[in-house]
Amino acid sequence: MSAAPVAISVEGVTIAYGEKVIQRGLTFGVRRGEVFVILGGSGCGKSSLLNAMIGLHRPTMGRILFGGDDIVTAEGADRLRLLRKFGVMYQSGALFGSMTVLENVRLPLDEFTDLGAAEKDLVAAAKLNLVGLLAAAGQKPSALSGGMQKRAGIARAMSLDPGILFLDEPSAGLDPITSAGLDKTIRELSRGLGITFVVVTHELQSIYAIADRCVMLDARTKTMIAEGKPADLRDHSDNPYVRQFFLRQAEPAAAGSKGSQSS
Amino acid sequence: MSTEATARVDVRDGPGGGAVLTLRGPLDVETTAAARADVAARLAARRPASLEVDASGIDRGDMSGMSLIYELAEGRLVPGVRATVKGLRPEFQTLLSAFPSGEALSGLEAAPRRGRFLDQVGAATVSVLADGRAQLAFIGAIVQGFAAVVRRPRAMRWGELAVVFEKAGVNALPIVSLISLLMGLVLAFEGAQTLEMFGAQIFVANGIGIVMIREFSPIFTAIIFAGRSGSAFAAEIGTMKVNQELDALETMGLDPVRFLVVQRVLAGTLLMPVLAAYSMVAGVFGGILVMFTMGFTFSQIWTQLSGAVGVHDVLVGVSKSFVFGAIIAGLGCLRGMQTKEGPNAVGDSTTRAVVAGILMIIIVDAIYSVVTYVLHI
Fold first, then answer.
1. Are B99 and A114 inside 8 Å of each other by CB?
2. Which of A203, B228, B238, B321 would be a feasible disulfide site paired with B276, CB 3.0-4.6 Å?
């Protein structure tokens, strides 16, 4: 795995909203075919980083390279070509409410391929089958549960078989069995097809199940504080906050301050 | 994305009148449409009794590509001939296994069933009746909410009432002024053209007075109110419904009607007559301006106007506005509370609030006209 070439290279990225800096100095590489997890506490900027990587939010500094092309500066046809390299599953699923689930998954095929209608339906149905949602193909998104909407969102992200999939909190809102099934699907797609996954999550079980490597962001220092394999970080990190995160322990400082207030 | 432009397709004779199809190169989202057309054309020319697919040469593939293999294997591309697929790499077999069974697909491909005409008429009738029932129940809930406020005035959120007055009333004055003034101008010009033939242009004052005060001002103000505020009520409450804020109110033991609807309906009921009265003045003023240009003096116009328009005309116009205000505000809130789930839900509620509001205004106005005609008011 370590010999795999880098699929996405994040170099010196600073993310800010106006004057407010969310994260700075982010530098890491996502290797081809690996499942790379962006993790960190709530509000640390995981989703902001994801938005920067998929070109929705422009970093104030740095480069984000997909095979040498920088999505930060890409425009016009170059940008469109870059966008075709990856699919995105949004936290809420972000399905189009006026279309059925099947039509949602088929939309990118309609827009970007020359396949016939029956073939597009077939491919879309296969994607839905992958996420266990074929039975709901004819339903509108509003008729689906939150978990099902996420799964449909994943199916749509995979519609054009992109080499890279970005998943924003994929297992949040799913029951443990479905969540584990989804983790398995991610592993299979990654192992079998060499799809590169960039997953934003803070679900520990999911992280251990799927992540080859991860990067951890910290809201206090406003930068990345760890990069590596989850088990290594849990067992060998020098940073107590990182170990605390992986061992799912409460904030000692907060507990202490509560104690001092009450005394 | 592709380094190679197309998949290479080759067909040769196989044993027993069959054919062997060899696929090589990339078979992915970029190349499959062309490869499929190529395969279909070659096989159609041969009409083989059996088919073997040599897929060992496929070096890049995805699910779009595997859809072609699936169609061949399932006999969907060459009807009656299910191909035997050999040499497919394990990673592509993983993809192929994701394709659903033929049975699951046949359910998917069944034409969407539309109800029969009579079913649709029945469903629409039930829907209309259910809506009527919901409206009656809602009126009951509003009355209950008002009763609660009368018993305990602190239960009314007076601050929000003031906000509604400002948004729906004060902020609406410019548009009401403009539309009413222009309506007065238009009425006067149109009336003057006809009356000029009889040398009776002075009666333009009668027309403006009666039409603006009894009809146009209440109606146009109500339509503006429905468009600006009825829709806003539906959107505000609809968004709250989507965000589960209404559920939160209920579980806190607060009545959403008393909490959200009562002040809006009260504001609408009190605001509309004021807006309508303001519109009457603006509209008549517009007409007077036109009459000035025709050479009439203010005293002439005023004498004619006061002779034609009585207090009862003003009362008819103002009393209509009370009813219009209550209807529009109530329907706006009702549609908001009926908001369903989904991204279009709030938009749908807003549309329904405006359409239902305007429809009810016209219906009530027609009833008013009949009643006032019969009673000679």
1. no
2. B321
